[in-house]
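WARN no homologs supplied; continuing
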Amino acid sequence: MTTPTGAFRQFQYPTAPLAVYPEEAINGHRAFIARRRALRPSEEYRTPTDAEWEEFLGHFEQRKVALGDCGRAYGTICQHEHSCVRCPVLRVDPAQRLRPEEIRSNLRERVAEAEREGWLGEAEGLRVSLAATENKLSQLDDRRRRATTINLGIPTFREIAGRIS
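OK structure emitted
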């Protein structure tokens, strides 16, 4: 059986392949950006003052919370009234894992108390917070699993070269 060397050779690269885009796509994107910028007020493209820059950096300092970091956009208020465990943009710090576990335990006790006392509205709100806390813990577990390196057993060049010679 013969190998179609011409067809096969086109898929062999001396180095890793790079993405190549047609020049018209690049020029079209640049023109789009230029049109968008022309529509925006020119003062938005000036260098910020020191006070503006400090305010911007301060935004990120204010996003640090006991459980981790809040990822809400610059200049926005917290729509969850700092009930961060319910917030979808809260990124829990893995070093703080015990805190959400304690919150979950406390919420379970409070749900039981609310149900025992007949506080149905309170119980429902606490269940929402409990579900959000369990979701945050699940996200932490997922991040830990993804961060784990898995050795696929791919041989090194020396191992391959050693087999050939």
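The chain is about 55% helix and 5% strand.
OK
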